[in-house]
Amino acid sequence: MSVHTAIQKRRGRMLSKSRREKTVGILCLILLIALALMVMFPIYWIFRSSLMSNGELYAYPPAFTPPAWRFENYPETLKSFEYLKFLGNTMTILIPAVAGAVVTATMGGYAFARLRFRGQKFLFTLCVGSMLLPSMVTLIPIFLAWSRLGLVNTYWPLILPHFCGGGAFNIFLIRQFVKTVPRELDEAATIDGCGYFRILVFIIVPAIKSAMIVVGLLKFIELWNDLLQQVTYITRRDRYTLALGLNIFRGSFNDDWSSIMCATCLSFIPGIVFYLIGQKYFVEGIVMTGMKN
Amino acid sequence: MTALPKRHTVRYNRAETRAAWICLLPSVIGLICITYIPMIASFTLSLFSWNGLGEMKYLGLDNYIRLFTRDTKFYGSLLTTLEYASLSVVGSIIYSMIIAMLLNRKVPARGFFRAVFYLPYVLPVLAVYLGWKWLFDYNHGLFNYLIKLGGGISVKFLDSSAMVTPSLALIAVWLSGNLIVIFLAGLQNVPRTYHEAAEIDGANAWQRFWRITIPCMTPIIFYNLLMSLVTNLQVITPALSLTQGGPGTGSYYMCYMLYSQAFKSHKYGYGSAVAVLLFLIIAVFTGILFATSKGWIFYEGDEKE
To answer: Looking only at Cα atoms, what is the longest distance across chain B?
Structure first.
């Protein structure tokens, strides 16, 4: 009898526990949805503002959906905002810079992971140590050097530095990945008569392709957003990148928020497209950057 | 075949050494030419007065003395930098930890939610700032509308020196999607058995969070803390694109001060002194983090002994 009631009591407790867990689960989901809406809302609001006239934007209370969907705002904005040109300029910088960073980081990471040579430890310490050095501190001397070379207002200062290993962090990331490739593969290739470079190209690179893509994507975002370097080196309007163009556009269209929001949405597009393409790698990559330490 | 026996000797293989140096050549050039030499150059330059064209004048520590004693904007700059960094670091770590914990549960459409929270991180940051400027607008912005709806009075988000840094830090929190993904990966690595064992021992969710989740996450919290601290102390983009350092010294962050001293006023020596101080501040903070890390970071390996 007492055993029976004990079992029943216990079952009741478990039942209430699972019910409670369910409630908690639903509450968490509701919280998650609320937060997601909050995070997305600014983007929606920007988009909605791009489809309204200035008169509508300044009305009170503000309309939550555009009274009339003025898609004609976009062609109108494109007349004064040289979107394609700025996008082209941005890509002219980004594509070689990212390629350079990926290739040289892979070479560096491979050497640190696989090859043994005198001074390796010292060099590696120097490399990892530079990760913690704030890049801002090198800004002025590097600028002075480029201006001495007469290369300010060209794209060289924005491209060439990325051919130098692509940053210690990326070298480190690649190194960690090369280390996960089984050494037996290298050794088998050595027996087959492969040199160190053929091993890199035919064994290592295929094995760490996803890490290389991640380095490329993260570099892409980093450079895309690096307004400081662009502001410092590019002052000629015909050389402007998308970020600089947008900045200037805002300045010249002071209170024309409708056009500014159009230009903003247009600038979002490459980021969103890029994200949709690279989403899988992005998530993987961010995880890697956090875990491989 | 011939290369094989050599690999097992302790002596360095010549061909290997040569291959290594060829592979590392770009990185070594980078380390020397765009990291360490400019670093030293910054230190040296900070002892001089130079406008980029004329003669360099040696000043000793005068630039620093002037910063600390005569520059009216320096302390404002220092304080606002620290304010921005602490608000955005603490804010984004708490925010992304909460989101990651929610996403770590069995939720439907998890991939979709993760994408939503991550999206701000990949948007072009300048466009993000412009968009937020509109949201922050004093007369017509969304936030002030909501505040007025709730019965409050309009806030000058970007146009008052007291509010500008918290407002910009809010954008930084919104942009911190990458931290969420790192935290989420860490949470998935917390062994389930720990939670199960604690549950059997009668620990409630709150206790499990503080006694299991947080200790297991400390290495990742440390990493995120370190990286976002170093990044946020170097804040400059919002000041460059939205506020130009103002109002007052409200967003006159040290990097912005460095930038405007060097590239607007052409005081390269003075700007370098700011850079060196920024370097020292970052070094002190990273030093503190590393020094205290032994005390609060829990490594799983420790337990197994």
So the answer is: 83
